[in-house]
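Archive entry. Fields below.
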Amino acid sequence: MTSPVRTRTKPDNSPRNWNALTVSECFRKLFGTQKLLVATHREPVIYQPPQNESPKRKDQPKLRYPAGGVSQSLHRLLLQTGGDWISLQNSPGPPTLSISLPGFPATYILYRLSPRDPALEEGYQRFSNDLLWPLFHEEPGRVGARPGDFKGYEAVNRLFAEHIFRVVKNHGNGVLWIHDYQLSLVAKELRPLVSSPLPPIAFFWHIPWPRQEFLVHLPERRALLEGLLDYDFLGFQTALYRERFLESVEREFGEDPRISVFADCVVKGNRRIHVGDYPIGVDPGRFESLSLDQKGQDEARSLLCELGIAPEEVLLISVDRMDYTKGFLKRLQILESLFLANPGRVGKIRLLQIAPLTRSGHPTYQSYQKKVREAVSNFNERWKTGTWFPVVSVERTVEHRILAPLYRMAAGALVTSTNDGMNLVAKEYLAAQKDEGGTLFLSRYTGAAQGLKEAVLIDPFDPATSAAIIDRYLAEPASIRKGRNKILREQISRNNIFLWMGSILTGIREAETKGN
Ligand code: ADQ
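PREDICTED_STRUCTURE:
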């Protein structure tokens, strides 16, 4: 097996400034009138059945859109290009929905899968969320899967593959784009079903790729890696994760003469699998204009008032699902260190923590969420003065039109993840800082920190130093903070979600050409 030095040059991803339109033009140029097929674990819409079913007045069902930035950008791409989307069904309604929006030229079909066997689905969920999620975030202590769960994981991946097979047969899609750790075996399950050549199958891994000493805790690691090598194109968030993945392939298949690892690909027999890093971004223009919208600002101010936060208080904001990888307890330790080191901050600086519950039917999450609530309540008890207390928690999703002005009003954003594939909140916060000097305090263990070199980095495992950094940088002159934001905002403007999509679509086409 060869193992050359893995240096690679980035392709020239012209045009320089990508936007929604250039991505759909890029798609047309590369794939003509062929359709895109996207597969994700979760759906891009939330279906609300009609409220009123009386024979006289029949309401229409409504579609709401979840807050996640990635699924909404892919959703808008499909509304431009047309295509198909396959997910597990997360809300009521029919098994197929035709999705269109005023102002968009195309319609796409959403296929909503429901595994027939609940035991297999439970195994799939456990393998994904109790094994892959903790191990790939390097938290082996939280692993809770059971032997046999892999069967469920394979079965649900097969269900996706069977459905994709039927759609591709009917629609002749030009490219298949599968997402994230729940669906790593779809290509492997799909290939045996098809005798004619398949369109290129791309896969994006949204979470970190761990160090080998954590991967070895996964008994099914070879099956997982083999599954990934059945894709034609593999994308990771950062060069570090790409490099670790290539190293895992070398370690696991070092003796296999059919497999060679190169800087930007793995060759397996007569197949070439492109492996690249494509840091995901946000739609900065959207966040900037939402942050400046008068109505949204008024609603954000009312929310602060409702929560008892006065306009003159220094506000720190954190926005994340209440997941253990987001470092909620470490965040409190940092605040504790801040108050101990600088008691003058008590009564003057507040943390607004917007933290919708996630996976809350799950015992690990139930106990983590209980712990976070207790820790916040004890912390508030310890540091309250009169009616003032330091941490305000909102355990629900806040719409982006209110969230963006809140980002703008906050003097700082605290991102305390102990491990995070990218972290889009960091980039959303910067996008909302037009002419503002709000400081992003970014955990060094995020993919975002690997790209945003000028950001103020903190270490959630070192609360005292992180607190000192926060204390110091909040006191910086506005001109310095604004100067830093200018540089960071230029970076997130260039490396936006559209560049991510455009680079991947271009990369898929290039990989296909090289592979033939
Ligand atoms: P997540 O772990 O979900 O994503 P993140 O990247 O921070 O994390 O994205 C969260 C998205 O949800 C953001 O768009 C944010 O605005 C939104 N969101 C979170 N809480 C919200 C709230 N209370 N109200 C409204 N919106 C809220 C996974 C990986 C990440 C990777 C992304 C994308 O774990 O590392 O960055 O995929 O690849």
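CURATOR_NOTE: The pocket of adenosine-5'-diphosphate-glucose is lined by residues 67-70, 206-207, 280, 319-321, 354, 356, 397-398, 403, 420-425, 428 (CB under 6 Å).
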